[in-house]
Amino acid sequence: MKMSKKYKRICLAFGLGTALCATAVSAANYTKTITATYRNIDVTYNGASKTLSAEPFLVDGSTYVPLRAVSEIMGADVKWNGTTNTVTITNAAGSADSTALEQQLATANYQVTTLQRELENVKKELETYKTNNSTNNSSSTSGTDITSAELTATEKFLSDTYADYFDDIYFDFDITKKGARLQLEISYSDRKDDTAFLKLRESKITDMLESVCSDISSRHKNIDIQGTITYTKNDIDRATFSYTAKTGRLRATCGLDVDSVKETVEDNLTKMFIQGYANSAVKDVDVSANNSNSTVNIRIYLDAAGDSFTNAWKVEENRKQIQIDFQRDLKSLCNKIDDDTDYAITIDVYTFNSSTYLASYDYKSDSLSLK
Which residues does the UniProt record annotate as the domain Copper amine oxidase-like N-terminal (predicted)? Predict the structure, then answer.
């Protein structure tokens, strides 16, 4: 049994010492006395402990192990030439480690070759895409090459894809060529709730329009699109939009077009008669709409000020006539606005200089109240 630490004085031939150090020796033989220390040194290879033919030891701080045993553990061949006192160590051809490395190298080379081939294919596809895209862009300016059959096929595709995009709403699509762009008319009907579309958030509507326009543009050589969303029940436009294919940008106005309402007011109501005072010019108009509950409020500002106006407004007989005149004029105005919307309309009248409230009119009930 080996001690944990022991000292032995041994005599070793210099040739043996050099063999342990794995070097070739050509010097003359001689005898040298050394001190070796044994410490139960353990040798492991690739994480596994190995039993050697002779126990390793220390000499002057260097560890000595049996050369043949260690070399063979690592798969090498060891030969001793007693004539020349030479140790020859050779890696064993076809060893397990060598074979594994060769297989790994072969696999890596195959993977590199495969990746290079795939890269070349991607480059070719990219060049083809660039060529086709350039051709499409150059030919998409007129849209005259799009046939009616192609548009009909696109309409069917849109119906199959987007007709039931939202619950309780059914969409229908009609596409026509308008010079260098396409005109897209989207009509819809409510299946249960007449206000289902109005309750949608604007972001949901624009998301649908972006997807629809992108699909159309990709099918027809990146052509620009313009269109509307119309309620079939009363033929009222609920949204207008335009799509630029080159940038993929959608511009949409959902709900009531307040600018259009304001324009209608300005075109049809330039002044209002105030009994006992004068015809007061309409100085400003402000329009606001609530799409969630389908209401629109119009504020009209009249050029009415001064003591003469104040005094005329206080006279009861004047107020009776003002009631009649205001109600008639505002109802006539709402009739024109109602041709473009089914929103509930209210109108408030103010003085322009001091923003003093004068009157309110409700179109649905045809009622007017004066200050």
Answer: 24-89
The full length of the chain comes to 371
Instruction: Dihedral sign for Cα 271, 272, 278, 284, please.
Output: negative
| Mean pLDDT of the region 67-77 | 83
**Cβ(347)–Cβ(330) below 8 Å:** yes
C-alpha span between 329 and 343 (Å, rounded): 19
Contact between residue 180 and residue 224 where contact means Cβ atoms under 8 Å apart? yes
Report how far residue 255's alpha carbon sits from residue 337's, in angstroms, rounded to the nearest whole number: 15
For every residue of 236-262, DSSP letters joined together read EEEEEEEEETTTTEEEEEES--HHHHH
DSSP SS3 for 174: strand
Q: What is the DSSP string of 49-67?
A: EE--SS--EEETTEEE--H
Which residues are within 8 A (CB) of 354 and not within 5 positions of it... i.e. 6 or more apart? 305
Instruction: Write out the two tokens for 247.
Output: 């940038």
Q: Residue 191 burial by CB count (10 A; 0-12/13-18/19+): exposed, middle or buried?
A: exposed
Quote the CA–CA distance of 212 and 182 in Å, as a whole number: 13
Inter-residue contact 140 to 222 (CB < 8 Å): yes
Taking the C-alpha atoms of residue 39 and residue 252, their distance in angstroms, rounded to an integer, is 87
In this structure, whether the domain defined by 148-255 belongs to CATH 3.30.70.2960 is answered with yes
Rounded Cα gap, residues 19 and 29, in angstroms: 13
Interval 248-295: pLDDT, tens: 899 988 877 777 788 889 999 999 999 989 889 999 999 888 766 678
Q: The whole model's pTM is what?
A: 0.43
CB 133 within 8 A of CB 176: no
Phi, psi of 251, rounded to the nearest 5 degrees: -115, 125
| Contacts (Cβ under 8 Å, ≥6 apart) of 20 | 64, 65, 66, 67
User: In the chain, what are the domain boundaries?
Assistant: 6-91, 93-139, 148-255, 259-370
List phi, psi (to 5°) of 96. Answer: -60, -45
- Residue indicated by tokens 């709402």: 334
- How would you write 30-48 as a 3-class SS string? CEEEEEEEECCCCEEECCE
H or E segment to which residue 81 belongs: strand 76-81
Q: What is the DSSP letter of 200?
A: S
